[in-house]
Design goal:
This protein is α+β, with helices and mostly antiparallel strands and about 350 residues long. It has nine helices and eleven strands. The chain folds into two domains: about 90 residues, Phosphorylase Kinase, domain 1 (2-Layer Sandwich); about 220 residues, Alpha-Beta Complex (Aminoglycoside 3'-phosphotransferase, Chain: A, domain 2), CATH 3.90.1200.10.
């Protein structure tokens, strides 16, 4: 259960008095997540999500509030935090920082179809297009500097071959990205399938921005491709890959430098999750009794990205036509490649 700080109906009813969201009807803990306590709240005016922040850098929470406010104002499918009667979003409840959000519709896609992939690429492309104008700043906590510093801590737990692989890869990234300035802006930083919600083929929401930061847009896109467009063996599913990139590139074409570094960025983001999961198991165990994610998945992905380059470097495509609702079109937008 991912409720680390239990709440009573009375506590939440009193908390809701700060807002104009109605009276509490039901309160239910959400049984997933690894860091925060999350509750579904139903009032006589709607459905909401209440999050208590249990760990992490609490001083970063104003950045997340400002980012979500900004993206919601740009009509992106994100849950803009609810502000209280005095216009304040960030609160405290049960001794923890707390935020209240509207509950976004839908469920997580375990095996996204091509229309769902295109909808995700479209939303991410629009987000990256506008996020370059967002003025907030938070350094990417999982960037190349982090990889360089933290990888040494897991080397004693790896085989000789994996130690050599990790060292070699990080040296390659330093050579490839050193002194390079790629297009940057606010990014999600962890846009896996379970951080999206769909109603049929329609993207209902992008959630959990708590890895959000300002960084290279290509980094965000590579995380998406490694999760959304990889099959069980770790190989790229070319149809999903093309659907995501075709929709994305209609809003934000990659420049020449980004296209050149694309295969390397796919490798670096695979290693980023291999390393973070190794750290959780061997160095930084979670604060609560939860099952860590298996690092082996991203070790496999890294190996496959080394063995097979992605299906050509992505180039711009015509603007895709996406469904207005949960339909299944006979064709989906695809990227064109050079």
């Amino acid at each position: 259960m991912a409720v680390f700080t239990p709440l009573s109906d009375e506590q939440v009813a009193d908390f809701l008095e700060r807002y104009t969201v109605g009276r509490l009807q039901t309160l239910k803990g959400v049984p997933h997540g690894t860091e925060n306590s999350t509750f579904f709240v139903t009032t006589d005016q709607g459905e909401w999500v209440l999050t208590l922040f249990e760990q992490g850098e609490f001083e970063d929470l104003p950045f997340f509030v400002d980012l979500l406010d900004y993206l919601a104002a740009q009509q992106l499918p994100v849950p803009g935090p609810v502000h209280d009667r005095d216009g304040v979003a960030l609160q405290r409840l049960a001794g923890r920082p707390a935020l209240l959000f509207p509950r976004m519709p839908g469920s997580h896609p375990s095996a996204p179809n091509l229309t769902q992939c295109a909808a995700l690429g479209d939303a991410l492309g629009r987000m990256h297009q506008v996020s370059q104008r967002f003025t907030g700043q938070r350094t990417n906590p999982r960037d190349l500097d982090w990889l360089t510093r933290r990888h040494r801590e897991v080397l004693p737990y790896l085989s000789d071959d994996d130690q050599a692989l990790m060292r070699r890869e990080i040296a390659d990234y330093a050579d490839a990205f050193g002194g390079v300035e790629l297009p940057a802006g606010a990014i999600h930083g962890d846009l896996f399938r379970d951080n999206t919600l769909y109603e049929g083929d329609r993207l209902g929401g992008i959630i959990d921005f708590y890895n959000g930061c300002t960084g290279e847009l290509l980094f965000d896109l590579a995380i998406v491709i490694n999760d959304w467009a990889s099959d069980d063996a770790g190989d790229i599913d070319e149809a999903r890959y093309a659907a995501i990139l075709g929709a994305y590139l209609a809003h934000r074409p990659l420049n020449e430098q980004e296209r050149e570094l694309w295969p390397t960025m796919l490798r670096m983001t695979a290693l980023r999750y291999w390393l973070s999961r190794l750290l959780v198991i061997h160095v930084d165990p979670p604060a609560y009794d939860i099952t860590p994610h298996d690092p082996a998945r991203f070790r496999t992905l890294l190996g496959r990205r080394l063995e097979a380059v992605p299906p050509n470097s992505p180039t711009p495509s015509p603007e895709p036509v996406l469904p207005d609702g949960p339909t299944t079109p006979t064709t989906v937008p695809m990227a064109t490649f050079d």
